[in-house]
């Protein structure tokens, strides 16, 4: 059985120190900012050093009515959502982007100001010293785990041939991420043996040279070879 890396919540923003942005109390009462701060305290920090926003705090963080927040959540891509221990979260970068857009484009002045506050707060949480430590720990762990991906995939699926060309593997072969990890930065997919293929060094070099960086392009590249 393949033991895959999984995201877990290890603490919340309530337990770390981060810089809180300045408040514009000329236009907005402190109570509105306090409400956002309470929602931000529930932001989850993962074992990969990423942040997750609980679904039930979205309306508060973007200053939207509950029905509107639920609609916005449903419209998010699957890749923007994750469920951990039966709790629904939104990946932090998705909410950061959402808040940035609303802070610049929303017709309501208060919403723009509050979303700007949320946007800056989430960035400060994700770049806080406590989160940076967890990011560093994950990177150290991931670099070591990546060295084993080729071996694990070969063992799991009894692979003996290059998964692109069909030629016998030369030596141990090499693991290639289907979605280039420098572009697609999901920490779980990075360490998933199903997120890559085992190929020969020559094939790997050609893929790199031709700038093939996602599944669609890889499938097109593979179609030029006859399956064994």
Task: Name a few traits of the molecule.
alpha+beta, five-stranded antiparallel beta sheet, two-stranded antiparallel ribbon, 10 helices
How would you characterize this protein structure?
This protein has 228 residues and is of the alpha+beta class. It is 46% helix and 12% strand. The chain contains ten helices and seven strands. Strands 1-2-3-5-4 form a five-stranded antiparallel beta sheet. It has a two-stranded antiparallel sheet with strand order 6-7. A hairpin with a 2-residue loop joins β4 and β5. α1 (30-40) runs parallel beside α5 (109-126) and α4 (92-105) packs antiparallel against α5 (109-126). The chain is elongated and about 70 Å long. It starts with 8 loop residues before the first strand and ends in a 6-residue tail after the last helix. The mean pLDDT is 95.
Mean pLDDT over the full residue set: 95
Strand order of the largest sheet: 1-2-3-5-4
Shape summary: elongated
Rg estimate, integer Å: 22 Å
What fraction strand? 5-15%
In whole angstroms, the N-to-C terminal distance is 26 Å
Number of E-type strands:
7
The profile of the biggest β sheet is: 5 strands, antiparallel
Helical residues, percent = 40-55%
Oligomer: single chain
Helical segment count? 10
SSE string, helices as H and strands as E: EHEEHHEEHHHHEHEHH
Structural class: alpha+beta
List segments where confidence is low: pLDDT < 50 over at least 5 consecutive residues: none
